[in-house]
Design a protein that fits this description.
Main location: cytoplasm
Strand content: over 45%
Pfam family, one: WD40
Keywords: Cytoplasm, Repeat, WD repeat
Order of helices and strands: EEEEEEEEEEEEEEEEEEEEEEEEEEEE
Distance between the termini: 49 Å
InterPro entries: WD40/YVTN_repeat-like_dom_sf, WD40_PAC1, WD40_repeat_CS, WD40_repeat_dom_sf, WD40_rpt, WD_repeat_MORG1
Largest sheet: 4 strands, antiparallel
Strand order of the largest sheet: 1-28-27-26
Structural class: mainly beta
Subcellular location: Cytoplasm
Shape: globular
Length: 315
Amino acid sequence: MAFPEPKPRGPELPQKRLKTLDCEQGAVRAVRFNVDGNYCLTCGSDKTLKLWNPLRGTLLRTYSGHGYEVLDAAGSFDNSNLCSGGGDKAVVLWDVASGQVVRKFRGHAGKVNTVQFNEEATLILSGSIDSSIRCWDCRSRRPEPVQTLDEARDGISSVKVSDHEVLAGSVDGRVRRYDLRMGQLFSDYVGSPITCACFSRDGQCLLVSSLDSTLRLLDKDTGELLGEYTGHQNKQYKLDCCLSERDTHVVSCSEDGKVFFWDLVEGSLALALPVGPGVVQSLAFHPTEPCLLTAMAGRIQCWREEAYEAEGGAG
């Protein structure tokens, strides 16, 4: 008799806490990996932005220049620049090496929730509670945005950028996708205020989280609902969601102190990772490895798969 082939091992989920870093910048509003996943940024309620090596637990630089709490940040593709936005309505372009402010863009009428570079890092896109997305030219001296996208009827909570698309989630309950090549706008109505929207790693799907404690996976081209993921709590805060590094799992923060992982295809809950007492404010998933960063209160935690061994012993 023939024995059945063993099932291939599923992807390992990051559930071993490697490091806890006390960021000493008030509440950490957002944590973000850089492009290659070697470094991370933390956005503080004390107006600072910090750059870390999260696996080593070392602080590399502190960036000061915002007039109010920093709400989001991103790194450029070549790691030479950072951009950030915050409660002072400003969008700031930073030089990574010197820590200096290169440009400060003003024009939003409310706090800036979300910032992203385009792929070449020639533009910064910022989304604000003033219901607009503004595109700022990093290379010119002009103070006004080169383009303003103002189709949303309420605040912009989330902006993501691919090589030719801009994805925006809004409190008006719609996720909008701007196809810059075709000059077209596609809009899908979710109905509940959207807290986060992102592309799948393969670019075929959209993941949308909203204040009805539900995540939805949509087909990018048709808007068809491919999956719904529930079990976490998201009723009042702007919380992050994403897909794991190989698009196998849907990942979300929760207001009950956990990070939830669901199997993308089956929709079943794979893991509810206890982070601590409080709201998991933000998370970031490594671009290529099963490594997760979580932010709660004034700390970030770095998580790896159970089999992971830190270089030079456990840190």
